[in-house]
Write a structure and sequence with these properties.
Elements: E1 3-8, E2 12-17, E3 23-31, E4 35-41, E5 44-50, H1 56-64, E6 69-76, H2 82-85, H3 87-95, E7 102-106, E8 112-117, E9 121-126, E10 134-135, H4 140-152, E11 164-168, E12 171-172, H5 182-191, H6 196-208, H7 216-224, H8 237-251
Helix pairs in contact: 1-3, 4-6
Length: 253
């Protein structure tokens, strides 16, 4: 085989058809509260990295396109939350797969990556370690930014994102797209003063990757308050005061 492992991101799928002799497996990182599904059908191996926001029926419909389902492997880590824990039993019920054909693997890692080898099975790596012989996802940082924005601006527990097929027919698809136009995203920003800093932090990241052009007023506020840090930590009382001031500057401009 010319490629050992190909990489996919969160909320994405890799389809390795039985006729595909170019690739022996799949790598994916950033697994915390997510679920990893590996479907072995009569026509393909399908790996899906599910944040919990993917549309369950869409997953089922995708799997059914590739013949009879022979085995399902589910992998999760220590960070699995209650909502995601309830998802794979629903998936099992919808696919009507027998318990003897389900393999559930858990890990004590809080954050980890996974390699699935079609011949030898699954290996887990702590802290997003990347093993050798992985072909990186093209434009990985840009793709991950699109997926972050798609997730962050969804209603809580929407579970409505279509599966992003990032690899099929022996090649990457380069098909990851924003779910919402910038006009809709900006409308959400105006409706959520409590999350103003976080919202404009994610939008600024998308602007930096040239996904859209943000209004100068938002860019100025994002830079003035250095909002990128709020993608990773909670606001202090002082931060919340500055957020109110910043939001008022934005809506009254």
């Amino acid at each position: 085989m010319s490629v050992k492992f190909i990489e996919i991101s969160q909320d994405a799928a890799c389809i390795l058809e039985n006729k595909n002799e170019d690739c022996s497996g799949v790598f994916t990182a950033g697994i915390q509260s997510c679920l990893i599904y590996i479907f072995k059908t009569t026509e393909a191996d399908i790996l899906i990295h599910d944040s919990g926001q993917l549309h369950i029926k869409g997953i089922c419909n995708l799997v059914k396109k590739y013949g009879e389902l022979k085995k399902l492997t589910v992998v999760y880590g220590a960070g699995l939350n209650n909502i995601n824990q309830s998802r794979y039993p629903k998936l099992v019920k919808m696919l009507e797969i027998a318990p003897d054909n389900i393999d559930v693997k858990s890990s004590n890692y809080g954050v980890f990556s996974l390699c699935f080898d079609r011949e030898t099975g699954i290996d887990l790596y702590p802290d997003n370690s990347v093993p050798a012989e992985v072909t990186p996802l093209p434009e990985k940082t840009k793709v991950e930014t699109i997926i972050e924005i798609n997730n962050f601006f969804l209603p809580v527990n929407a579970q409505s994102i279509p599966v992003d097929i990032q690899y099929i027919n022996s090649s990457f698809t380069n098909s990851t797209k924003l779910k919402f136009p910038i006009k809709t995203l900006l409308k959400t920003v105006q409706e959520q003063p409590k999350y103003f800093f976080q919202n404009i932090a994610f939008l600024k990241k998308g602007h930096d990757h040239k996904l859209y052009d943000l209004p100068p007023a938002i860019l100025n506020l994002a830079n003035k308050y250095k909002v990128s840090k709020f993608m990773f930590r909670a606001l202090t009382p002082l931060d919340r005061e500055q957020q109110i001031q910043s939001f008022n500057e934005f809506v009254n401009r």
